[in-house]
Amino acid sequence: MFCPKCAQQQVSVTVRYCSRCGFLLEGVSALVISGGQLPMSYMPPASRELSARSKGVRQGAMLMLSTILVVPIVSVLTVSLDILPHIFIPLVAIICFIGGLLRMLYALMMEDPNPPIDLAQVRAYAGPAPSQLESGRPIASAQAGFNPAPAWNPRPNTAEIFTPPSVTENTTRLLQKEEPEDR
User: Fold this and answer.
1) What CA–CA distance (Å, rounded) separates 111 from 148?
2) Could you tell me where the beta strands, DSSP code E, fall in 128-167?
3) Residue 122 and residue 107: Cα distance in Å, rounded?
4) How many C-beta atoms surround the C-beta of residue 14 within 10 A?
5) pLDDT digits (tens, 9 = 90+) for 157-183
6) Whose CA is closest to 149, among 18, 17, 6, 1?
7) Which residues touch 10 (CB under 8 Å, ≥6 apart)?
8) Which of 102, 115, 121, 176 has minimal Cβ neighbours within 10 Å of its Cβ?
C-alpha cells in the first residue's frame, strides 16, 4: 500500500500512520481492503478489543493485588512446614508487588496504545468490489497516474540573491595602500 499524500510505500496494511508525512492511513487501509468502496459502518478503534498497553496495565494490577492473596497462603504453608518463613514470606511479597509494578511500567512505556485492527471485521462492512475486467476498459495501475503533492516547499537558493565576497579581497586592499614615507 502507498500513502496517498506522499506516495511512500508502507510496510504493511496495518500501519496507522505514514512514516514519512504522518498521514492517517486507517481509513485508507479500509478502502484498499474493500476494493475502493467506503465501508457502510466503520467502527471506531475505541469500541473494539483492548490494546496491548491496557492489557499489560491490567495484568500488572492483578499481579499486585494477588499479593494480598498469595502472601497469606505462603505464610501459612511456610510456618506449618517450617521452611524458613522469615525468608520466603518477604520474598514472595516483594516479587508479587514489584513484579506487578514492573509489568505496569513496561506496558505503559513499551507496548502499543492502539487496539489491533480486525481486518475481517473491516472487510465485512463493504460490498463486493466491481470487477474491472467486465467493463471492457483497460485496468490502470494505481501508481501510473499518481502525482504526489510536495510535502514541503523547497529551500530557496540564497546564493543567487547575494554573491559572497572573495576570501582574499581584504588582504589585497591592504597591499594596495601605500604607507607614507615621511618617517
Assistant:
1) 33
2) none
3) 27
4) 13
5) 666 666 666 777 777 777 766 666 665
6) 6
7) 1, 2, 3, 18, 19, 25
8) 176
pLDDT of residue 123: 55
The better pLDDT of the pair 127, 84 is held by: 84
Please give the backbone phi and psi of residue 87, each rounded to the nearest 5 degrees, phi first.
-100, -45
How many CB atoms neighbour CB 107 within 10 A?
Answer: 22
**DSSP 8-state symbol, 156:** P
Whether the CB-CB separation of 17 and 23 falls below 8 Å is answered with yes
pTM: 0.41
| Residue in the block written with cell 478503534 | 45
Distance CA 70, CA 95 (A): 11
What is the tens place of the pLDDT at every residue in 47-73?
A: 567 888 999 999 999 999 999 999 999
Residue 2 phi/psi, 5-degree rounding, is: -115, 145
